[in-house]
Design brief:
The protein is of the alpha/beta class. It has eight helices and seven strands; from the N terminus they run ααβαβαβαβαβαβαβ. The chain has one domain: Rossmann fold, CATH 3.40.50.150. A seven-stranded mixed beta sheet has the order 3-2-1-4-5-7-6, with helices on both faces. The mean pLDDT is about 95. It binds S-adenosylmethionine. S-adenosylmethionine binds next to β2, α5 and α8.
C-alpha cells in the first residue's frame, strides 16, 4: 500500500444540483428491482451464522467491507454484537485469507443493493451501519451510482442504527449529509476526520498520501 494515491478529480465543485429531486423520487417510489438468487442464498447463510452465534444479539453491518479489516476491528470493538462484512467482490472477500476474524463476525459475498433490502424486508434493525470509503463515482453523470443517489438509499432509514460514512472526497460526504438530513429529518453535518489508526486499506492509503478525510454520522434510531 503506497502513499501515492491521487486526489479525487471531478467537474463538480459542490453537491450535485439534482440530488434532492432524485432522492425525493426514490423516497416516493419503492425500489422494485427483482433480487438475485445468490444474494438471497448469501443472506440466508449469514442469518444462520448470526442466529447460531447468539439469536437477538445486536447486529452491525460493514457495508462494502473490501478485504474485511474493518469487519475484524469492529467485531473486536463490539464483542457482544454480531458483524456482517458485506462486499460484492469475490477477490476482495478472499484476499489475504484466512483473516483472524473473531467468532462474532463473518464476511459475506453479496450485492448490497439486495442485501440491504433483504435485511429491511425481514424487519432487521442494525445497531451500527458503516459505509467506509464507498466508490465515489465522481463524474457528474454518475450521481445515481453514489449510494445517496441510488434507488436503494431510502432502505437505510428502515435499517436504523448509528450510521457512519467516510470518504476522501468532501463532496461525497457533503452530499451524503444532505441526503441523510432529508431522509431522516435530523440535521446531519459533514465533518473532517483524522486518525492515526486506519481502519481499512483505503483509509490507510489515503492517510499515507496526505489526503484529508471526511465523514458524516447520524443515529437513525
Ligand atoms: C473503495 S472500496 C472500499 C473498501 C473498504 N471499505 C476500504 O475502505 O478499504 C469500495 C468497496 O465497495 C464494494 N462495493 C461496491 N458496490 C458494491 C455493491 N453493490 N455491493 C457490495 N459491495 C460493493 C467494492 O467491491 C469495494 O470493495
Amino acid at each position: 500500500m503506497t502513499g501515492n494515491s491521487r486526489l479525487i478529480s471531478s467537474a463538480q465543485d459542490g453537491p450535485h444540483g439534482d440530488l434532492e429531486v432524485l432522492l425525493r423520487r426514490h423516497i416516493a417510489h419503492p425500489f422494485l428491482k427483482p433480487m438475485a438468487d445468490y444474494n438471497r442464498e448469501a443472506f440466508a447463510v449469514a442469518m444462520l451464522a448470526y442466529e447460531k452465534w447468539q439469536p437477538g444479539a445486536p447486529l452491525i453491518l460493514d457495508a462494502g467491507c473490501g478485504v474485511g479489516w474493518s469487519t475484524q476491528r469492529i467485531a473486536e470493538n463490539y464483542p457482544d454484537h454480531f458483524v456482517f462484512g458485506v462486499d460484492q467482490s469475490v477477490d476482495r472477500i478472499n484476499r489475504g485469507k484466512p483473516l483472524p476474524l473473531p467468532d462474532n463476525a463473518m464476511l459475506v459475498r453479496a450485492d448490497l443493493v439486495d442485501f440491504w433490502r433483504l435485511l429491511a424486508e425481514n424487519g432487521i434493525k442494525l445497531a451500527h451501519h458503516y459505509n467506509l470509503y464507498p466508490n465515489p463515482w465522481p463524474k457528474i453523470g454518475h450521481l445515481a451510482r453514489r449510494w445517496h443517489g441510488h434507488a436503494v438509499f431510502p432502505t437505510w432509514l428502515a435499517l436504523g442504527g448509528e450510521l457512519e460514512c467516510r470518504s476522501n472526497w468532501s463532496i461525497y460526504i457533503e452530499e451524503m449529509a444532505l441526503a441523510l438530513t432529508l431522509l431522516s429529518g435530523q440535521t446531519v453535518a459533514a465533518e473532517a476526520y483524522s486518525t492515526d489508526e486506519p481502519m481499512t486499506p483505503f483509509e490507510k492509503k489515503y492517510l499515507a498520501s496526505g489526503h484529508p478525510l471526511w465523514r458524516c454520522r447520524v443515529n437513525l434510531r
